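seq as requested:
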Amino acid sequence: MSGIFDQESTAEQVLAGVDLSGKRALVTGVSAGLGVETARALAARGAHVVGAARDLEKAEAATRFIREQGLALELVQLDLASLASVRRCADRLLAEGEPFDLVIANAGIMACPLGKTADGFETQFGTNHLGHFVLINRLLPLLRRGSRVVNLSSAGHRYSDVDLDDPNFERTEYVPFVAYGRSKTANILFSVAFDRRHKAAGIRAVAVHPGGIATELGRYAYPTQEHLDRQVAVLNEANAKAGRPAFKLKSIPQGAATTVWAAAVADAELVGGRYCEDCHVGELNPSTDQLVLGGIRPYAIDAARAEALWAKSEEMVGERF
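C-alpha cells:
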C-alpha cells in the first residue's frame, strides 16, 4: 500500500479506505493551506482533530466548512514564536489528558526578513524548529504506543545545514533562504533524534517535504505570480542539467498527501527517522547545487548532528527532554 502513490496523489486518494475512527490528531497551522487540508482529510476519515493556530479567528473562518460537515475538529491557540504560548498550549492539552495518535507539526514560515521571536531567537529557527521542539517533547506523555510525529520539512533544507555556533545570526550575515534552510534541516534532524529516543516505545517520527505549493508560506519569497514563475524556470533549468525530473507545483490536496501518507498509511519501519517526499522515502542526494531538487542531503540525517542539535535546542529553550 505504501508504494502506489506519487507526486500527483492527493490526501483524499492516499487515505481512501483508511479508517481513523477513534484516533486523535494534533495539527499545527490550521489557519490556511496545508494545515487546513490535512485537518480536513484526517477528520473525513474519522479522526478527532485538534487544530492549533496563532490566530484563532482566522482558523475558525478557514475551518468552518469542516465543522459544517459534522467532522470532529476543535481549535487551540498556539503561537510557535513564543515559548510561553507553546507551554500554555501543551499545559492545556496535558491537563485535558486526552491521548494523541498523530502529531503533525505543519505550521511554519519561510524566507521572512530578519527578526526575533518573543524569546530572542531568529524567527525561522525559533518558529519552525524550537517551538515545535518544545511542544512535541512536552506532549510526549500523551502519545500512545503506535503514534507518529510528522515534522514538515522542505526541499529547502538544501540551502543550509544547521549552524550550532551561531543559530541566531549574531555573527553571520542574514540570508532569508539560508535561515529557512537551517530551520528545515533542523526539522529533519529533530525527527531523526526523536525517533531514535522513542521507537522502542512504539512512537515514531518522520520528516516530510510536501512539495512546492503556492500557499501563504511563500508571501515573502514569491510576492507575485511572476516571481514564482521565474523561480520555477530557474529550478527546471538546473534540474534538467543535473538529469533530475522537472519541478512542478502541486495543488494543496497534493501537497498534503505525503503528510497523511507518512502519518497513517506507510509502514512505521519504512518511514521512522526518515525524510519522505512524493509519498515515498527520499533518497540520498549529495549534490551541493542548491537549485537541484529531490532527495535528502546527507547532513540532514546525520545521527551525530541530530544529537548535537538536540543538546543545543535544550540549551536554547532552557529545558531538558
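The domain at 11-216+250-313 is CATH 3.40.50.720 (Rossmann fold).
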